[in-house]
């Protein structure tokens, strides 16, 4: 039986208030400093990756193009939450407007959906490069890459649009205090006066399908890659292939493990796992990958590392000449 109708415009709060990390208020200043350092690293690192790939004509292979898009998505994902987190932790400015809250929610979850698709695309790229090297250029054409990028983006939009609509149309007539440091959708949905279960189930099932689908295909790609690598006669070729794939697997572990732990802990462990642990896990899941991705790829990818060093040397030499 349907519940009584409600006036959405009347019951929509003008402002939400983000708590930060409940129970860790005494550590908020240290968290602000740590997050600021990580955010700066993420911005600088990902910007360098993007500039280096865009400027260097030798880095126009599909892998580097996907890496450039990944760097842009990482900047969007971190920028959606970290500035507000730092404001909460450093100055206690916890208010966020209704529209800004749901805009933040949309960008955070859409960016995570795009990122998992990019990780799948990069795994597919490595599979073609190692298992079908002679057909690499004929398979991963610019048209195919564009199609993959558009499909990844459309999938994220299709997933997030209904979720945002469902949550934003819930009546919020009670507490407007969100026990989180950003507008995480389950934390906001639980404040609604109506039953938030449909949106929560949609999010859980949708996230599980998207991530499960991507993880299965990524795992299949790397199983085939390992079979091909261990079939190589050259130990040097084996090491080179494993080294390249190792950095990708490390990035994926940093993304998937905390992310899925955050989602399922919020559902299954909400009574056994302390709230501050749940919130901190959700925060780090959005900050650590954008911070470490450029470091891992910058240090592990020879072409990017050489290009960054050459740019740094040019900058130092130009600065020295100007000073003299």
From TrEMBL:
Protein name: Olfactory receptor
Protein family (similarity comment): Belongs to the G-protein coupled receptor 1 family.
Taxonomic source organism: Ictidomys tridecemlineatus (Thirteen-lined ground squirrel)
Signal sequence coordinates: none
Topological type in the membrane: Multi-pass membrane protein
Stretches assigned to the G-protein coupled receptors family 1 profile domain: 45-297
Keyword Transmembrane helix: yes
GO MF annotations, alphabetized: G protein-coupled receptor activity; olfactory receptor activity
Keywords: Cell membrane, G-protein coupled receptor, Membrane, Olfaction, Receptor, Sensory transduction, Transducer, Transmembrane, Transmembrane helix
UniProt xrefs under PROSITE patterns: G_PROTEIN_RECEP_F1_1, G_PROTEIN_RECEP_F1_2
Main location: membrane
Subcellular location: Cell membrane; Membrane
Protein origin, superkingdom: Eukaryota
Transmembrane portions of the chain: 29-52, 64-86, 106-124, 144-167, 204-230, 242-267, 279-299
Pfam family, one: 7tm_4
Record function comment: Odorant receptor.
UniProt-listed InterPro entries: GPCR_Rhodpsn, GPCR_Rhodpsn_7TM, Olfact_rcpt, OR51/52/56-like
GO cellular component, one term: plasma membrane
PANTHER family (UniProt xref): OLFACTORY RECEPTOR 52I1-RELATED, OLFACTORY RECEPTOR 56B1-RELATED
């Amino acid at each position: 039986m349907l519940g009584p109708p409600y006036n959405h415009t009347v019951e929509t709060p003008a402002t939400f208030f983000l708590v930060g990390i409940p129970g860790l208020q005494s550590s908020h200043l240290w968290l602000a400093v740590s997050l600021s350092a990580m955010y700066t690293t993420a911005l600088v690192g990902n910007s360098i990756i993007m500039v280096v790939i865009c400027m260097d004509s030798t880095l126009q292979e599909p892998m580097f193009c996907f890496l450039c898009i990944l760097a842009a998505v990482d900047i969007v994902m971190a920028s959606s939450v970290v500035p507000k987190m730092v404001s909460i932790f450093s100055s206690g400015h916890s208010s966020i407007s209704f529209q800004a809250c749901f805009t933040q929610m949309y960008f955070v979850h859409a960016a995570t959906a795009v990122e998992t698709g990019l990780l799948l695309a990069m795994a597919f790229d490595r599979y073609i490069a190692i298992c079908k090297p002679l057909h690499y250029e004929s398979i991963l054409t610019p048209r195919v890459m564009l199609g993959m990028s558009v499909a990844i983006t459309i999938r994220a939009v299709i997933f997030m649009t209904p979720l945002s609509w469902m949550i934003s149309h819930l009546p919020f007539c009670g507490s407007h205090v969100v026990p989180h440091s950003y507008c995480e959708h389950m934390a906001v949905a639980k404040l609604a006066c109506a039953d938030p279960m449909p949106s929560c189930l949609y999010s859980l099932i949708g996230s599980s399908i998207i991530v499960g689908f991507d993880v299965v295909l990524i795992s299949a790609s790397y199983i085939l890659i390992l079979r091909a690598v261990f079939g190589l006669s050259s130990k040097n070729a084996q090491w080179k292939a494993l080294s390249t794939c190792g950095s990708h697997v490390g990035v994926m572990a940093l993304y998937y493990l905390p992310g899925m732990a955050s989602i399922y802990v919020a559902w299954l462990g909400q009574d056994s796992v302390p709230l501050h642990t749940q919130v901190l896990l959700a925060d780090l899941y959005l900050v650590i990958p954008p911070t470490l991705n450029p470091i891992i790829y910058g240090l592990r990818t020879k072409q990017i590392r050489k290009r960054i060093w050459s740019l740094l040397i040019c900058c130092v030499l130009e600065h020295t000449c100007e000073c003299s």
